[in-house]
Amino acid sequence: MIGLVAFLSCIGLIWAEEPFNHRVHNERVIGGSNAEPNTWKWQISLQYDSYGDGSYYHLCGGSIIDGFHVMTAAHCILSNDPTGYRVVAGEYNLYEYDGSEQFISVDRIHVHPGWNGDLGKGNDIAILRLSVPVYDNGYVTIAELPSPEQMLPHDFTCQITGWGLMDYYGTTPEILQVAPIRVVEHSICSQPEWWGTIALKTMVCAGGDGVISGCQGDSGGPLNCFIDGAWRVHGVVSYGPAGMCNQVRKPTVFTRVSFFQDWIYSVLGY
């Protein structure tokens, strides 16, 4: 699997001298710009304490889907022990304390039962239950989700957000990045010169123009699409090409949220 796609792991060491660990791979926004403060308020930073010493790394993105739960990618789960993770809601600048952040430990991890570690097989989605709920401090909100089975039309413009790499050289942003990214319908994305058979109907492809893409560190974060009168999280960043993330005909691939509505709501207890 590694070499075909960029498998995502920890990036952006928090509270440490080195801001980036070049020994690991992740997914980030390339071709983006600084997001306006207090805009993508459902976006979180999922952080991991790999040594158990209180030094957290930015691992992945994610979305707040109710007061107690965050949605992210299954491949972001490096350990089934929830004590190594924390969620930072209301985050904007990873390397400064803005006063808007909520640092919350993870109480329980729900990985989709169909996930087998192979990104090309799909089901790359997980839900984390928080130890305490997020609260409305003016900097966080719950994401709107799409209608069940809803599909995005070809060339529809969404926005990708995250703290992932900004270029091939490993430049990492301090501030949340955002970029417009266009949907590539399944009939195109599944063609051999695109992603072929590993682009499934349970996924959303977006990008592939050689300019804008997710990259290392963006995994688990949202594909934000304004549709039906609201911004809705239609995708969870799953995979992209190894090496340079913004390759022509190799769009960023997202887990399609609308396909997993029943499972999501069953975990939430709705």
Describe the structure.
- This protein has a domain at 157-258: Trypsin-like serine proteases (Thrombin, subunit H, Beta Barrel).
- The longest helix is centred in the last third of the chain and has 8 residues, at 261-268.
- With 270 residues, the protein is mostly beta strands.
- The protein is built from 2 helices and 13 strands; from the N terminus they run E-E-E-E-E-E-E-E-E-H-E-E-E-E-H.
- The model is unreliable at 1-28 (pLDDT under 50).
- Strand 3 and strand 4 form a beta hairpin.
Quickly describe the structure.
With 270 residues, this protein is mostly beta strands. The protein has helices at residues 186-189, 261-268; strands spanning 33-34, 43-48, 57-66, 69-72, 85-89, 102-111, 126-130, 157-162, 177-184, 203-206, 222-227, 230-239, 252-256.
Topology, element by element:
Elements: E1 33-34, E2 43-48, E3 57-66, E4 69-72, E5 85-89, E6 102-111, E7 126-130, E8 157-162, E9 177-184, H1 186-189, E10 203-206, E11 222-227, E12 230-239, E13 252-256, H2 261-268
Antiparallel strand pairs: 1-9, 2-3, 2-5, 3-4, 4-7, 5-6, 6-7, 8-9, 8-11, 9-10, 10-13, 11-12, 12-13
